[in-house]
Design a protein that fits this description.
heterodimer, A: 417 residues, alpha+beta, Alpha-Beta Plaits, 2 domains, seven-stranded mixed sheet, three-stranded antiparallel sheet, 11 helices, 48% helix, B: 290 residues, alpha/beta, Rossmann fold, 44% helix, 19% strand, Release factor (chain A), Protein-(Glutamine-N5) methyltransferase (chain B), transferase (chain B)
Chain lengths: 417, 290
């Protein structure tokens, strides 16, 4: 920090002094001192330093990357103001958010270094404990969240809505019932996030529940939040119909697809070329037009280049079924494109970003022990069954998976190519 | 009676009249209409009981359906181009093939790019019935179209106006007019686009048709004389000669058995004409232009 201007240092001292006085008046710490105190002070100092070192160690690649940037890019030196021309021409390094986060990081780091010195003055120890604690947790958030977010290019899919397709797997009617429960879970979660859930199609299971269902979730960010829900969800519990009380294991497969705003999909960048799609109606053979009045209006689309077929029959007219079917086809094609793009990037970078294979078990809902475990997040991710079904627990897992993705994506950026 | 029981009871009665999937869809629509619950909600709440008024409504609907009355008249609603139209026995129930005609017409109007030349295409629909064609066109071209619709039936126009108010905030002009009477044409100006789904079924074809159509839908909207089945197309072709604006076009729905005959008719009036199939692969619509 040799190059930081003096005004910065004195600002920091003033800031600390103010907080100290406030703290002191609350705790009356100036009057209560004892001998044993200084020993515990020393151990507290070591504790704080250890926590800080651990944090720095965990994020070493990011920190050294940031230091490297600063050395090579004059614009990122403290207090550098880019001209508007520069700002426009630069990539993410020049973006405002990143510079703010970086500036914040530097200030916190410097303040931490100053604060640690306070452990050596007996009357300031209590303040030091509180302050280092706050500073370290602020730094942790910055390193885990703000800096990676600002450093990574913004998500191409951040605007998109989502389609969640659920299919009953092994476990018969238990599995169908779980489809219905997941459907409710995602609907509730959507409403909590002010997205708009609509069931587009569903087919009923033999004894209640659904064999399969498609849920549309309209709203900005729905896809980015839910994309990590793709994979096999496993439920372990005693079915209500099971007299012997034996625990059954059943599965539901989820696929989350990106859904674009329809009004933006009819332009040149539309993934679906009309000539590539065969449209069929599935009405019984016989006359049409004015001769007959039938309610049947199912439509099937076949995308010839990929062989993807989509059928839709739950809407009230042929026109609506066709529109819906196109919407789902676009989502599938967009999904294919994203998977392909990702594979290409990975091939270039040779890094190992793990995305869930769709057949992979991603989560277990164990009702006997009332806990849900996300296998990608490990033991730290356990929440209760009620919590996840009510949406709160799902929020925790969704955030955890997002952060995990963020740190993996960051590895990709930090890795020298 | 729970919703599930009500559904199954209605379904078992409908099997007497309709094929399985048709019966299932009709039952579904009726229960949804009465309970206000979509299928998904009904599956989740399948043990919810029907109230006494709902049970009466269901009994009444069942009675009417068993007389072969179309479900759309029983419920007073038909879906067309994503919109719910009111329908009763004054009007033909909109068909999916007509949705395809509207789609084609919309595409062609968009491709003409009237808005680039700062123009609003004027559209006329002949024999409008429920108003499904002009209302759907208006809604899809919003606000770049000026739309007029005519019908010979006062009852039909009443329904069409009601739909226009509900679905298009009513900027559509409706005219009570007998289109077959050429003297009436004088009051009409030039149009860029003329659409029509005129009656096109020969009396002789009635024998192969179902009671839900024959006994309930307005015969004037369906049938033409066996010896002159193209009468409406002949009149439309003649009308177009004097009322189609430069670069204008006609879009009409046709009898699948009369595709080539109808094309020939338009050609004999000096039109260029294009025949198109519906999604079932049948000759169903024609675009004609001078």
């Amino acid at each position: 920090m040799a190059d930081s201007p003096p005004s910065d240092g004195s600002r920091r001292v003033m800031f600390l002094l103010r907080r100290y006085l406030r703290h002191a008046s609350q705790q009356s710490i100036l009057t209560q001192r004892s001998f044993g105190h200084s020993l515990s002070c020393h151990s507290k100092k070591l504790e704080a330093i250890a926590t800080y070192e651990q944090l720095v160690h965990e994020h070493a690649p990011l920190i050294s990357y940031l230091e490297g940037l600063t050395a090579h890019d004059p614009l990122l030196r403290p207090h550098a103001e880019p001209s508007s021309e520069d700002a426009g021409a630069r990539n993410y390094k020049g973006t405002r958010n990143f510079r703010i986060a970086l500036e914040h990081f530097r200030t916190l780091k410097a303040t931490y270094e100053d604060t640690v010195q306070l452990f050596d003055s007996p009357e300031l120890v209590d303040l030091a404990i509180v302050e280092t604690d706050t500073l370290i947790s602020d730094l942790r958030f910055l390193l885990k969240h703000d800096l990676p977010t600002a450093l990574l290019p913004s998500s191409e899919t951040e605007e998109l809505s989502a389609l969640v397709e659920l299919k009953a797997g092994v476990g018969g009617s238990e599995s169908s019932l779980f489809v219905a429960e997941l459907l409710r879970m995602y609907s509730r979660f959507s409403r909590q996030n002010e997205w708009e859930p609509t069931v587009l199609s569903s087919s009923e299971g033999d004894s209640g529940g659904f064999k399969d269902a498609i849920l549309e979730i309209k709203g900005t960010g729905a896809y980015d939040a839910l994309r990590w829900e793709s994979g096999v969800h496993r439920v372990q519990r005693v079915p209500t119909t099971e007299a012997s009380g034996r625990v059954h294991t059943s599965t539901v497969a989820a696929v989350v697809l990106p859904l674009s705003d329809e009004s933006r999909m009819n332009g040149a960048d539309d993934l679906v070329k009309p000539e590539d799609v065969r449209v069929e109606v599935m009405r019984a053979r016989g006359a049409g037009g004015q001769h007959v009045n039938k309610t049947e209006s199912a439509v099937r689309l076949t995308h010839l280049p990929t062989g993807i077929t989509v059928s839709m029959q739950d809407e009230r007219s042929q026109h609506q079924n066709k529109r819906r079917a196109y919407q789902i086809l676009r989502a599938r094609l967009m999904d294919l494109k994203l998977v392909r793009d990702q594979a290409e990037r990975r091939a270039v970078r040779k890094s190992l970003v793990r995305t869930a294979d769709r057949g992979e078990k991603i989560r277990t809902y164990n009702y006997q022990q009332n806990r849900v475990t996300d296998h990608r997040l490990g033991k730290g991710s356990m929440v209760s069954c009620e919590a996840i079904m009510e949406g709160v627990g799902l929020r925790m897992l969704v955030d955890g998976l997002k952060d995990k993705h963020l740190s993996e994506a960051l590895e990709e950026v930090l890795e020298p190519t | 009676m729970t919703m599930k029981e009500a559904y199954l009871r209605l379904l078992s009665r409908l099997y007497e009249l309709y094929a399985d999937r048709e019966a299932a869809t009709i039952a579904d629509w009726v229960i949804e209409h009465i309970t206000g619950m979509k299928r998904i909600d009904r599956i989740v709440h399948k043990n919810v009981l029907l109230s006494a008024p709902q049970q009466l409504q269901l009994a009444d609907a069942t009675e009417r359906l068993l007389q072969h009355e179309p479900v759309q008249y029983v419920l007073g609603e038909a879906w067309f181009a994503g919109m719910r139209f009111y329908v009763d026995r004054n009007v033909l129930i909109p068909r999916p093939e007509t949705e395809e005609l509207v789609e084609w017409t919309t595409e062609e109007i968009r491709n003409t790019k009237y808005e680039v030349q700062n123009q609003q295409p004027t559209i006329l629909d002949i024999g409008t019935g429920s108003g499904c064609i002009p209302i759907a066109l208006y809604r899809q071209l919003l606000p770049n179209a000026s739309v007029t619709a005519l019908d010979v039936s006062e009852g039909a126009l009443k329904v069409a106006k009601q739909n226009a108010i509900a679905l298009a905030a009513a900027p559509i002009d409706f005219l009570l007019l007998d289109f077959l009477n050429e003297a009436e044409w004088q009051q009409l100006p030039l149009y860029d686009i003329i659409t029509s789904n005129p009656p096109y079924i020969k009396q002789a074809e009635a024998a192969s048709m179902n009671r839900n159509v024959l006994d309930f839908e307005p015969a004037t909207a369906l049938f033409v004389e066996d010896n002159d089945p193209l009468i409406f197309y002949r009149k439309i072709a003649a009308f177009g000669k004097t009322h189609l604006a430069a670069k204008g076009a006609l879009f009409v729905e046709i009898n699948e058995a009369l595709g080539l005959a109808t094309i020939d008719l338009f050609k004999s009036y000096g039109y260029q004409a294009l025949l198109r199939q519906d999604l079932q692969g049948r000759d169903r619509m024609i675009k004609a232009w001078l």
